[in-house]
Amino acid sequence: MSIPRTYSFARYLTAKQSVDDRALNGHVWQNLVAALPRAAPEQPLHILEIGAGLGTMVERLCAGGMLTNTIYTAIDLEPTLIAEARRRLPQWAAAQGWQVQQDSPAQLHVQRPGQDIRVATEAIDVFRFIAREQGQRFWDLLIAQAVLDLVDVPTTLPALLSLLRPGGLLYCPITFDGGTVFQPELDPELDVAIEACYHQTMDRRLVAGKPSGDSRTGRHLFAHLQAAGAEVLAAGSSDWVVFAGPNGYAADEAYFLHFIIHTMHSALTGHPHLDAERFTAWIAQRHAQVEPGTLVYIAHQLDVLGRVPAPLGETRE
Ligand SMILES: C[S@@+](CC[C@H](N)C(=O)[O-])C[C@H]1O[C@@H](n2cnc3c(N)ncnc32)[C@H](O)[C@@H]1O
To answer: What is the DSSP letter of 264?
Structure first.
C-alpha cells in the first residue's frame, strides 16, 4: 500500500488484531483458561477489561469458547473507540452465529448454546472508574492488554488489584518490554539511537503532570506484582513480528506498519539528540520499505498472568 495521508487509531487497532493473534503467548493463555473459575447461571464470571479499545479481546475470548456465563465490563478512555466497539461487537457476534440482543446502547447480550455473555461498555478514565467502583464491585478477572505501559504501574497496580475479589486474576498480555526492531538495518548507529530516543519518550511521558509510562513495563511487572501482594502464575513473551510472506503482509498489517512509523515520527520530531534531516530521511525510508514488503518489524512484549491471594477456603472453583 502507498503511504497513508491521514491516520486513524481505530484502523490501527483493527490492523493490530492479526498481529496480536500471532503474538499472544499460548502458555500464558492456557494457564488463564485453567485458572478461570467455573461459571454457572447463578454465579457468572465477572470480567473487567481496561483500555479495551475496540473490544477485540471480547471477540477473542468469546470465539475461544472459554466464556460460558459471563458479565464483561469493557472500558476505555476514548469515547470514539467505545462507540466503534458498540458498532462492531453486535455485528461480529451476529456474523459468528450468536443470538444478539441489544439491551441498551451500552449493554449487549449475546448467546449461543452453552454461552451467555453480557457486555457492558463505557467510555471512562480508568482512574475515575477505580474511584467509583472501589469497594463496590469485585471482578474475577481483570484484563489489561497493551495498556500497562501507558500508566505508572507502581501506583496504578495496587488500585487495579483492589477491584479483584480474593483469588482474582490479572491478565496483562502484550505488555511492552523495551524492544523496537526494524530490519533491514539502514544505518546501525542511527537505528539504535532512534530506538533509544523512542523508548525514552515512553519513560518520560507525563499525563496530567504525572509519570505515565515505562518502556520496560513487562520485565518490571514481576517486582510490581510482588510488591502489590500478587503472585505470578504464568509469563511468556508475546513479541509482535510483522513481515511480508509470499502474499505480502497479512490482513491490514501494511497499514499497521505505516502507523507505527508515523507514531515514531510524531514522538521524535524535534528530538534534541537526533539530526532532523537524517531522522526525516530514516522515516521516509522506513515508509518506503512497506510497499515492496522489505520491512520487518519486531516489538518485544510480555504476557503476564497474576493472582491476588485468597484467604484459605475462599477460592472460587
Ligand atoms: C494501545 S491501546 C490498546 C487497546 C486494546 N487493549 C488493544 O490491545 O487492542 C491502549 C488503550 O488504552 C486506552 N487508555 C489509555 N489511557 C487510559 C485511561 N487512563 N483510562 C482508560 N483507558 C485508557 C486508550 O484509549 C487505548 O484504547
So the answer is: H
